[in-house]
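Q: Hi! First time doing this. I have a protein sequence and I read that you can turn it into a structure. Is that right? Here it is:
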Amino acid sequence: MRLFLYLLLFSLAFSCKKEEKQSLVEKSGRQTNIFYKKSFAFLDQDKLDSAYLYFNKSKELFLRKNDSLGVAKCIVNIAILQEKVGDNYGSIESSLSAFKYLKEKDTLHHPFMFCNYNNLGVASCNLKNYNDAKRFYNKALPFASDSIDRIMTANNIAIVYHNQKRYHKAITIYKKLLDSLDSKSEFYPKILINYSRSKWFQNSTYNPVGNYLTAEKLSRKAGDEWTTDAVYSYLSSYYLNKAKDSSRYYATKMLDLSKKLKYPADELEALQILIKVANGEENQEFFDRYITLQDSVLLAQNKAKNQFALIRFESEKTKSENLILQKEKVLQKFKMEKQKLVIWLLIIIFVCAASTGFMWVLRRRKRLILEAEKKLQEQRLDFSKKVHDVVANGLYEVIATIENQNNIPKEKILDKLEIMYEKSRDLSYEDHKDIELEEKISALIGSFDNYETRIIIIGNDSTFWEDISADAFEELYQVIRELLVNMKKHSNASQVIIRFNKNDNSNEISYSDNGIGVSENKAEKNGFTNIRSRLAKINAEMNIDNNSPGLKLLIKHKR
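A: Yes, that's right. Below is the predicted 3D structure, encoded as structure tokens:
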């Protein structure tokens, strides 16, 4: 299985090389993205995390220039790096996001469309999603720019068929590729060993060794150590159950060459075979080396994944901060006449809206005043009627008694007058209650409500005031008035909320505004001492919340 992975990576690496070449050819008059160049410099040094970081930086620079192709190039490279460190799901996600910046109809985008579809095929194949892999490779074919792209894509499709155990289809593709290639082609030994292995998998009696050795000779002559390494992998696997000495020989050569190439995956594969063919202490030695190297590889992959995730997080964070701090570039200037028209339309709309709002406030205020006056007039008429019924009739009764009865005892007259006094006092109290305390409070608060300061009243109804004595009401009335006066003079508030809430043991009045607020020290200088004094008379207390913007306080009156 090792060479199949190698050839997938080979085709992907080849596409990246070609993409790098393409990316450095900028349009005339445009400055090259320096971050993009640095990314490839770090790739050549095998510093993947630094390359990933600079691909992200170059992507942001391309975004600011509205260069969709540049953005797509960076994202495709990021996806390839993610696949390289084993983050296949992340690689697929990045590749899919690149398509919104790629245009199928633009031929300049075709090399990167090819590379992106190819990467999706590689990542899907790594995850054993072979149907998806084949679909992506087929999508890549229309964007292949030359015969090399088509050869590598066809090879990758054949690899998918092999992994699906559809060896006949794989062999058919390999045979066509071999027939189209000259034996001197650099791709000939690569296709030859794939073809031979699929033939062996299809028919266990087939001997692929001759082709493997031919491929080894050609690759060594061309200085292609990767293909030589792959040949050793195939030969050691072929001889594993046939000639253990031969299997061990080629596995040892594969181990040495993979170390030179710094490819841990092949080292692990070579050690696996050596563990199977070695004996005694040597077997244990290979096993220990395998476990150590495997842990090291997993640790390196996880570290790379985490580092990539951290870089991506920091990049997104920086992008968000820059979006907040930076001003948008000036948009295209509108024609002067159109700009004037828009400005005048906005002014007219604003004036109309302001006038409508002002007239609505005036009409509402006038309506409330008329309603209050009407209510007051009705209460006055009602009170006059009660005065007539209670006081006038009572006086008439006393006068009639004095006129019609002689020698009336003084005590009897005093009793009648005392009864009249009690009735008049009760009448005064009833009048105080009949005025409806909530209306009096509403009228008080409403006198401070205007278009500059909106006052919202919540819970001011008859049930709130029904258990409150006249003396307590008077003190609370004066406290509310003092709060509103202070608000008007000092707070510059545009909104006030007064809430009346009745609990089992107390009545609560909460006041809050969005003004400048007041500290605890200043509160005592702005009439709050007088307020606390009033509240103390009626067994009430006030608490100021210093942690909220504006002024917020709560008055509790215990019943």
